[in-house]
Amino acid sequence: MSDETPTGDSAGDVAARVVSSAAQDIGSFIKSQREAAQVSLRQLSQLTNVSNPYLSQIERGLRKPSAEVLGQIAKGLRVSAEVLYMRAGFLEDRPASPVRDALLSDTSVTERQKQVLLEIYESFRRENNPRLDPQPEKENQE
Prior knowledge:
The chain contains 8 helices and no strands. With 142 residues, it is mainly α. Residues 30-84 form the HTH cro/C1-type domain.
């Protein structure tokens, strides 16, 4: 038997590779953040109420965590959930903003409340300045 895949990849094969790549990226990012914080996998499991085996699978890129699990991991590692959401592909990358930075660093507001406030803030900005609407990359690069 051969491990080679046919040259005519189906859309499902391509999608599976993209998901696998995203899972690997977020997993390795979480692992590097955990190691930088000098937290063991077992300690992170206790801090997040996420099982040790599941965290291990996430770090190895075998599983792609839900937004809820990412939020728990962010809390456990004391990093911004928005950063993890962007790395996992749940949010688009946004330019830095003092308002956004202040909101994200506020520990008295839940992660869900932060996301809602950021969405409202961005909608006001777009309403007041329509040029802030994101343009497709191709148009900006021509």
